[in-house]
């Protein structure tokens, strides 16, 4: 597999991956018109969601510390 293809698949998953995680399996093949197609348990149990939230929280903590301890101009 070429390297560009791997990067492209990673970006594609980050942009459209929530569809596969948040909705039932048949929802990706048919238009989403009913709320019953939503599968919140599948979405909330995905490790990518929790790792992303931990990363975002870490970035927020670092930004707060940097702003709090910066030198005055």
- The gross shape turns out to be elongated
Major pleated sheet: none
Question: Which structural class do you get from the secondary structure elements?
Answer: mainly alpha
- Integer average pLDDT: 77
Radius of gyration: 18 Å
Number of helices: 3
Uncertain stretches of 5 or more adjacent residues: none
Tally of separate domains = 1
Order of helices and strands: HHH
Number of DSSP-assigned strands: 0
Q: Per DSSP, what share of the residues sits in E-state strands of 2 or more residues?
A: under 5%
Write up this protein:
This protein has three helices and no strands. The protein is mostly helical. It has one domain. The protein is elongated, with a radius of gyration of 18 Å. The termini are far apart.
How would the blueprint of this fold be written?
Elements: H1 3-22, H2 40-44, H3 47-68
């Amino acid at each position: 597999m070429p390297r560009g293809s791997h990067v492209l698949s990673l970006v594609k998953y980050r942009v459209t991956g929530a569809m596969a995680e948040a909705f039932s399996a048949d929802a990706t093949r048919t238009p989403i018109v009913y709320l019953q197609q939503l599968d919140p348990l599948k979405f909330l149990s995905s490790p990518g969601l929790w790792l992303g939230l931990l990363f975002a929280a870490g970035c927020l903590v670092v930004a707060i510390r940097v702003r709090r301890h910066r030198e005055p101009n």
